[in-house]
Write a structure and sequence with these properties.
The protein is mainly α. It has three domains: 16-112, Fumarase/aspartase (N-terminal domain) (Fumarase C, Chain B, domain 1, Orthogonal Bundle); 117-157 and 170-202 and 230-360, Fumarase C, Chain A, domain 2 (Up-down Bundle), CATH 1.20.200; 364-464, Orthogonal Bundle (Ribonucleotide Reductase Protein R1, domain 1). The chain has 19 helices and eight strands. A two-stranded antiparallel ribbon has the order 1-2. Strands 3-4 form a two-stranded antiparallel sheet. Helix 8 links the parallel strand 5 (199-200) and strand 6. Helix 6 runs parallel beside helix 12 (332-355) and helix 10 packs parallel to helix 12 (332-355). The longest helix has 37 residues, at 116-152. The protein starts with a strand and ends with a helix. The structure holds arginine (ARG). Arginine (ARG) binds next to helix 6. Arginine binds at residues 30, 34, 90, 116-117, 120, 324, 326, 328-329.
Length: 466
């Protein structure tokens, strides 16, 4: 009996004769990670207890005593004085057992009309509600910071890329606001997931509902849930809301990771579009000249675990028969890890961007390589009546000529251009100037300064609303 503990002492020990294997006890316990749900668990229990009293299932004196005990446990947990025990398996039983020490046998009445199966769903839903609120707050901060950077650097032109080849000049602000659009969609996704998180499962009990005349609406109201679950089996078996949370998180990390990739590139000496502050970079232990963009690299790297967490959760759920299965205890670590990772990444990213210095690129450098305004040259010919396909061909020849002569488009003289096409005139040079190229993209959603300014105004207003 050396490696056995006495199962008859457990809260569920009644039907057990033999003890739990010691390794099994640790193996099946979730307290090491679900202890972080203590405040949600207590909040849920207090509401449940009040409801039981209002429905006259327990007396009001009993309810008061239990609630006082729970509040004391909350303080003990908050102050780090609560002793969590693996033998008590999970957060629910740790709290109930402590409650029994404080208020005596009436502690056992708290679990009337409830099971750990609906209790744990409630706890996760309460936890995720708060996490979504925090993440949405972080997303808002990030968007505000990016809009402020866009506003401050409104004149700043950078090369826009496709295939990581210089394509057309764009405003840096336009590029940054592209990410704001993504982040706002991410915010919407979280808020949408919130609607399905925000459903109260308590009262479903183990799977079938309960024999007691409870009023689930009272509990829902006390816990500020606008809706209660409609099917007790679904309620205890459902983790869709958790998968949706992880899915929204995976998308936001994918966006952050792309952005970080650009920051790493922009911060390189080859690009030199940006200088990250010392606060968000680190040195090399061997190469003294190095200033590495670790924050951006780590965020890019951490996207992997967040994607993994989504896959873990989906895989964990995919073969489970209704209703609750112990497998579902494995839902928590991916959830906690996802939320922690997303929150810290959003915060670090925002601060990294706020402290970064964007280095203006001189017009001559923008002109010097990549033929950024070649499309404008073709469009110029179209304005002169040349069909676009021919204009494309003529411009291609012009670029080829430049490459032979080692010249940029703006280096060419009018006679040189006219040798390629008689349609070129002296107004061509203004047409292919970088800033004119940008300002002519004056379509809604385009990179012209006027359009980008309008978006800054729109986004600033939008971000002021809750
Ligand atoms: N620790 C469990 C979990 O996280 C709580 C629910 C346990 N229910 C049960 N019938 N064993 O899933």
């Amino acid at each position: 009996m050396k490696n056995k503990t006495d199962a008859s002492k457990k809260l569920w020990g009644g039907r057990f004769k033999q003890s739990t294997d010691a390794l099994m006890e640790t193996f099946s316990a979730s307290i090491s990670f679900d202890k972080r749900l203590y405040d949600c668990d207590i909040e849920g229990s207090i509401a449940h207890c009040k409801m039981l009293a209002r429905c006259k299932i327990i007396t009001s004196a009993e309810s008061k005593k239990i609630i006082k005990g729970l509040q004391r446990i909350l303080r003990e947990c908050d102050e780090g004085r609560f002793e969590f025990s693996v033998r008590l398996e999970d957060i629910h039983m740790n709290i109930e057992s402590r409650l029994r020490e404080i208020v005596g046998p009436i502690a056992g009445k708290l679990h009337t009309a409830r099971s750990r199966n609906d209790q744990v769903c409630l706890d996760i839903r309460l936890y995720l509600r708060k996490e979504v609120e925090d993440i949405v707050g972080e997303l808002n901060n990030m968007c505000k910071a990016l809009v402020a950077i866009a506003k401050k650097n409104i004149d700043h032109v950078i090369p826009g890329y496709t295939h990581l080849q210089r394509a057309q000049p764009v405003l840096l602000s336009h590029h940054l606001l592209a990410y704001v659009e993504m982040m706002l969609r991410d915010k919407e996704r979280f808020l949408d997931a919130y609607k399905r998180i925000n459903v109260m499962p308590l009262g479903s009990a183990a799977l079938a509902g309960t024999n007691f005349p409870i009023d689930r609406k009272i509990t829902a109201k006390l816990l500020r849930f606008p809706e209660i679950s409609h099917n007790s089996m679904d309620a205890v078996a459902d983790r869709d809301f958790a998968a949706e949370f992880c899915s929204a998180a995976a998308l936001v990390m994918m966006h952050l990771s792309r952005f970080c990739e650009e920051i790493v590139i922009w911060n390189s000496s080859e690009f030199g579009f940006l200088e990250l502050s010392d606060a968000f970079t680190t040195g090399s232990s061997i190469m003294p000249q190095k200033k590495n963009p670790d924050a951006a690299e780590l965020i890019r790297g951490k996207s992997g675990r967040v994607f993994g967490n989504l896959v873990s959760l989906l895989t964990l759920m995919k073969g489970l028969p209704l209703a609750y299965n112990k497998d579902m205890q494995e839902d928590k670590e991916p959830l906690f890890d996802t939320s922690e990772t997303v929150k810290v990444c959003l915060r670090i990213f925002t601060d990294m961007m706020k402290s970064a210095k964007f280095i203006p690129i001189a017009t001559k450098d923008l002109e010097a390589s990549g033929f950024l305004t070649a499309t404008d040259l073709a469009d110029y010919l179209v304005l002169k009546g040349v069909p676009f396909r021919d204009a494309h061909e003529i411009t291609g020849k012009t670029v080829a000529f430049c490459l032979e002569e080692e010249k940029t488009l703006t280096d060419l003289s009018l006679p040189e251009l006219r040798k390629i096409s008689k349609r070129f005139d002296k107004d061509v040079f203004a047409h292919i100037a970088i800033s004119n190229s940008v300002d002519r993209k004056n379509v809604y959603g385009g990179t012209a300064k006027k359009q980008v300014r309008a978006q800054i105004t729109r986004l600033t207003k939008k971000l002021k609303q809750k």
